[in-house]
Amino acid sequence: MLITKKILTACFLTLAIITSAQGQPKKVIADKIAGIVGDRIILYSDIKNSLADIVRQGGTVPENGECLLMEQAIISKVLMLQAMKDSLPVTDEEVEADLDNRIRTYINQLGSQEALEEIAGKTIYQIKDDARESVKEQKLAQAMQRKIVDNVRITPIEVKAYFDKIPKDSLPFYESELEICQIIIYPKPSRELEQYIVGEMNNYKKQIEMKVTTFEQLAKKVSEDPGSRDRGGQYQINRTEKTWDPVFMSTAFRLKEGEISPPVKSKFGFHIIQMVQRNGDDAIVRHILRIPPVTEEEIGQARRKLDTVRSKIIAGTIGFNEAASKYSDDEAAKYTGPCITDREGSTFVTIDMLDKDMVAMLGKMKVGDYSQPTAFESEQGKKGVRVVYLKSRSQPHRMNMQDDYSKISNFALEEKKSKTMEKWLKNKLPSYYVMIDPATAEECPQLQKFATDTKAF
């Protein structure tokens, strides 16, 4: 029984939101029991809803997707039941936080709470009530998984043994990967320009209050926030979220419904904020963002400052990481360090993940070089100056122990965890009653190894 990384980490039951073939919203009916583990049932509609959720999020369903999800569901139930036996801690607060995060994700994908409720055919509270038990089961299963595999370790001998087992003609080919670190300074605009922006924003507020235009119309026209401009500046926020600027959050939650704030300054620029709807710690707001422009003079000042920092690094009077910690305005560097990371947190990135100006700069650099302070523009349109350090660059190559030890070690560790899970399940399954619907067992022969009963329900 191969327990893959996906089975170990995936969440099985999702919020059940699905549309019919005609495109009309409807509530899916639990029409059939696909299996039972202990005293817990697996509904056929759960499997269908999970498949639909994968498609809705842009994923690809494999040919045997229903069988894989059914297998995953059985394993999840066993893990959950064992977690309950072992009294592993999962608090109601953790479950509620998970539910809130899922709801916010769906709202951000669909654009509004109303759109989510329309597609689901339920209110937010009904969606959460329907999903609460499933989310708690998932969290219990995840806690059990952690207990089983978190102490699994790998030795260099095991890493080499794993690599040696891979057929030479099956070794993957890797493109060139780079480790790139940077120190960024975002110049501050002049006081005069900031005052000019504040004056414009006060004028926006006046226009809205006099009903010359609406907040939504004005946001679409003048806001410099690409993440919300097309939605009229709208966001769904929660007071407990740490990713939002604290000034923005505290200002928003002081407002009454319909009220518009005076201009406030955050790390992103200047905002006016309108409270659209509030329910406890959840709120729907609109905002208009204006970013005061910086002049060539301010860019020049930042360049001169970074030139001094670069000279100290080259002279060895300060290390790059220390300099980044002390001088960089890059928010990400405070949490992940000064090196660029991919979505999984690795500092090894490929050229296609970089902006075109960075690519052009690296073409002239050798490993160990520090670039001259160079002006650039961030994805958010913010002008800055950066010094780039090319820490390493691999050549395109087949997987090998010298260049890819870290990757091979991770693969070997995952395999060892999978085998640990496989052994655990083999030992624990006989102590649990597992019944599978005969039709499901016939369609998915791999499930028969789990069943202690395949009689008709």
Description:
By secondary structure, the chain is of the alpha+beta class. The chain has three domains: 5-155 and 410-449, Orthogonal Bundle (Triger factor/SurA peptide-binding fold); 174-188 and 295-397, Chitinase A, domain 3; 191-290, Chitinase A, domain 3 (Roll). The protein has 16 helices and 13 strands. It has helices at residues 5-9, 44-56, 65-85, 92-110, 113-120, 124-149, 156-165, 191-209, 215-222, 246-252, 296-315, 320-327, 333-336, 356-362, 401-428, 438-443; strands spanning 33-37, 40-43, 173-174, 177-185, 234-238, 264-265, 270-279, 282-290, 349-350, 374-377, 383-393, 397-398, 434-436. Strand 1 and strand 2 form a beta hairpin. The relative contact order is 0.13. The model is unreliable at 1-30 (pLDDT under 50).
List the helices and strands and how they pair.
Blueprint: H1 5-9, E1 33-37, E2 40-43, H2 44-56, H3 65-85, H4 92-110, H5 113-120, H6 124-149, H7 156-165, E3 173-174, E4 177-185, H8 191-209, H9 215-222, E5 234-238, H10 246-252, E6 264-265, E7 270-279, E8 282-290, H11 296-315, H12 320-327, H13 333-336, E9 349-350, H14 356-362, E10 374-377, E11 383-393, E12 397-398, H15 401-428, E13 434-436, H16 438-443
Antiparallel strand pairs: 1-2, 1-13, 3-12, 4-9, 4-11, 5-8, 6-7, 7-8, 10-11
